[in-house]
Each structure stands twice: as structure tokens, then as C-alpha cells.
């Protein structure tokens, strides 16, 4: 069986959080040909399933950079969490650095998940982070912490390196960026590439080929295990340099273009017309 592992933001989704008609047709044809499609994203499950375009796809969803694996029916197959003691260490460091902090839990995002913040102003973000009472998080019963995100303003992206260095002494965590102005911290067991192997074991499957599509630092983990990795044209240069192939941007049907023309996993329209 062949697997297609696809990131969402900046990859399958356009800048308007939509899936193009071309990409929808490509997904349908891949399904008809028997490929295993998987959405492999940094988003929380609630932020994935609210997307109208995704609601039409009957596929497994790997969320929070491989922290939580969901089956096609929405059943949780696997969870990787941060211990409360590790969370406290990370939070203490981030708080001292005075960066925005998002905490992904089984109760949702505290004070939010990332997608709703994309269009907020600098002032709105500062207010959100400074007014939120993070002490309330630890009051939840049976709390599970999947991820923390350190967030800086676009003009301060160089501060992410400062955050990475400050967290270097904390064991058993994985760090990656989905956007240049953030750092996502998860359990060392949370990994987009490991998730693909873990899913095969859970479902008793064997992928003889894995095609991975992405645009961010958190996609390098799936590039590492892929037979072929495809970076989007909108991906930063250092991500493109790690990929086997580079396609068009997410706003230019980049996913569909790669599937049809670069990888030739399905026929082009021209070939279909000849066959007909």
C-alpha cells in the first residue's frame, strides 16, 4: 500500500483555509486508486474537523505534530503527552522570556489554539496572553498536555532561536516550528514521521511507499521517513532544501500539481482526454 501524508496549513489548505477544486479532484482520484491518505498536521483535532473542506474527507487525522492519532471514524488510536513536571519546566522558561504561550490540552487550547490568532493584531495578542490566568490549566481533572507553542511577533522572529537555546536543557521533548515566528514543544514521542510508523503498527498495515507533503519545520519529521518528500513553493528555503521535490505554492494548486506532474501518481487531464 502507498501512503500520502499531507500537512494542512500552507500545504493542502490555501491561505484562505480552503482546499482547491484541483486538490479535491486529486484526493478523490488517489482514493480511487487505493492510496492511504493521511492528514498530518500541527493543528488540534477541533481545528481540523471544523474546516468544511476536511469534513468531506474520510481519512485518518494525525494532530498536534503526531501527538494524537485519530482513525477515519474519529477514534483516538494513540496519545503522546507531556508530563506535568516537564510542562512546568517549559512554562517557567517561556514565561521568563516574555513570549506568547499557547497550551494544547484535552480540554482545548489555553488561552487558544493557533489558527484563531492568525489575523489578530499585536495589541490583541498582547492582551490575550497577559490577561490569561495560566494557573487555571492545572486545575482541570485528568489533564493531558499535548503541546506548548511559544509565539513571538512577526518582526521578532529572531527571538525563536533564543527560545530554542533556553529550552535546550529540558529532556524528552521535541521542538519544531510550523511558522517562522513560533516554536512548538511536544513530547519526544510526538513526531510526524514516527506517527506514520506507529499507525502502520496499530492498523497492521505496511506502507511500501510514503509520499510526504509539507511547508514548515514540523514537516521535516515526515520528510525524514518519506520515500519522496515534496515541499511547497511557499515553504522557506531551508525547508525546500530538505525535500526531494519542490512544487507550486499552496495558492497555486501546488499539491495537485505535484501529484499529477512531479510524482505522476495520477493521470494529467491531457492524458485522460486521450484515453477517453
TrEMBL record:
Any single Pfam family the record assigns to this protein: Hydrolase_3
Keyword check for tRNA-binding: no
UniProt GO MF annotations: magnesium ion binding; phosphatase activity
UniProt keyword list: Hydrolase
InterPro entries assigned to the protein according to its UniProt record, in alphabetical order: Cof (IPR000150), HAD-like_sf (IPR036412), HAD-SF_hydro_IIB (IPR006379), HAD_sf (IPR023214)
Gene Ontology cellular component annotations, sorted alphabetically: cytosol
PANTHER family referenced in this protein's UniProt entry, alphabetically: HAD SUPERFAMILY HYDROLASE-LIKE, TYPE 3, PHOSPHOSERINE PHOSPHATASE
The protein's name in its UniProt record: Hydrolase
Record lineage: Bacteria, Bacillati, Bacillota, Bacilli, Bacillales
Amino acid at each position: 500500500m502507498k501512503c500520502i501524508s499531507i500537512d494542512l496549513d500552507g500545504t493542502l489548505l490555501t491561505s484562505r483555509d480552503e482546499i482547491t477544486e484541483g486538490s479535491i479532484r486529486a484526493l478523490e482520484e488517489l482514493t480511487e486508486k487505493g492510496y492511504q491518505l493521511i492528514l498530518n498536521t500541527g493543528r488540534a483535532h477541533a481545528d481540523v474537523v471544523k474546516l468544511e473542506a476536511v469534513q468531506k474527507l474520510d481519512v485518518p487525522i494525525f494532530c498536534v505534530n503526531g501527538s494524537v492519532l485519530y482513525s477515519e471514524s474519529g477514534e483516538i488510536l494513540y496519545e503522546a503527552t507531556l508530563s506535568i513536571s516537564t510542562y512546568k519546566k517549559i512554562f517557567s522558561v517561556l514565561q521568563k522570556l516574555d513570549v506568547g504561550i499557547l497550551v494544547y490540552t484535552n480540554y482545548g487550547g489555553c488561552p487558544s489554539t493557533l489558527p484563531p490568532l492568525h489575523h489578530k493584531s499585536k495589541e490583541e495578542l498582547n492582551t490575550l496572553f497577559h490577561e490569561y490566568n495560566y494557573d487555571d490549566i492545572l486545575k482541570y481533572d485528568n489533564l493531558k498536555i499535548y503541546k506548548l507553542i511559544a509565539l513571538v511577533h512577526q518582526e521578532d522572529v529572531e527571538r525563536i532561536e533564543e527560545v530554542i537555546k533556553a529550552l535546550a536543557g529540558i529532556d524528552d521533548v521535541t521542538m519544531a516550528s510550523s511558522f517562522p515566528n513560533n516554536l512548538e514543544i511536544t513530547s519526544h514521542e510526538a513526531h510526524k514521521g514516527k506517527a506514520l510508523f506507529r499507525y502502520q503498527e496499530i492498523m497492521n498495515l505496511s506502507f511500501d511507499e510514503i509520499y510526504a507533503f509539507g511547508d514548515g519545520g514540523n514537516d521535516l519529521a515526515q520528510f525524514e521517513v518519506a520515500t519522496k518528500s515534496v515541499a511547497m513553493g511557499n515553504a522557506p528555503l531551508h525547508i525546500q532544501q530538505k525535500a526531494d521535490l519542490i512544487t507550486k505554492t499552496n495558492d497555486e494548486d501546488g499539491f495537485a500539481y505535484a501529484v499529477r506532474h512531479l510524482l505522476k501518481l495520477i493521470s494529467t487531464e491531457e492524458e485522460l482526454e486521450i484515453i477517453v
